[in-house]
Structure formats: C-alpha cells, structure tokens
Amino acid sequence: MTTPRDTLLKLRQEILAELDHIEQDLDAPKPKDWDDAASERQGDEVLQALGEHDLEELRGIDAALKRVDEGEYGFCVKCGSEISPERLELLPATPFCKTCAAQI
C-alpha cells in the first residue's frame, strides 16, 4: 500500500527531474541567428514560467511532507477539518479541505 509520504516523495522526485531538464534547456547554447535567438528567448520565458510553477509545487510538497512528519497531514490547515481521501488522492499536497479551498 502506498503511503502519503511515498506519494509525495514520488511527486517531489518527478518535479526535481523536470526542474533539472528545464535548467539544462535554459543553459543550452543559444543560436547565433537573430530570428532563431528571438524564438529561443520566447521558449526560455515559457521554460522559466514552468520552472517557477514547479518550484511553487515543490514548496507545497515539502510543506505536506512536514505535515506528514508532524501527524497533521490530511487535515485542513485553515479549519482543521479532515480532508477527504478523494481530494488527497487528486491533490496529495493540498493543505485545504474542499470548503476552505473554495473560499480562497
């Protein structure tokens, strides 16, 4: 049986691998042709946005792992209610129950 910690650690590894891939793409040599360089810059902007999103997701996973360690995983950080197993299955790092998430 997969534990919440296992699920979160797997997600964390996937995001770290994606961030590594993004970093490699951003560090790749740039083309010398002006048109190609402009296209490359646009691609870099997209990669940077994806990287920022991934870093935010990574912070959420790390916070969820801390809640696991503290025995608070599965409970809403706002109201203290239990988060439904279905919601945790879809969003393993969520800190909010469905009701509180809708209010944010």
TrEMBL record:
The keyword Cytoplasm does not apply. PROSITE patterns: ZF_DKSA_2 (PS51128). GO terms for molecular function: zinc ion binding. SUPFAM superfamilies: DnaK suppressor protein DksA, alpha-hairpin domain (SSF109635), Glucocorticoid receptor-like (DNA-binding domain) (SSF57716). It comes from the Bacteria. InterPro entries: DksA-like_N (IPR048487), DnaK_N (IPR037187), Znf_DskA_TraR (IPR000962). A zinc finger (dksA C4-type) spans 76-100. Residues 6-68 form the DnaK suppressor protein-like N-terminal domain. Keywords: Metal-binding, Zinc, Zinc-finger. Residues 71-102 form the Zinc finger DksA/TraR C4-type domain. This is TraR/DksA family transcriptional regulator.
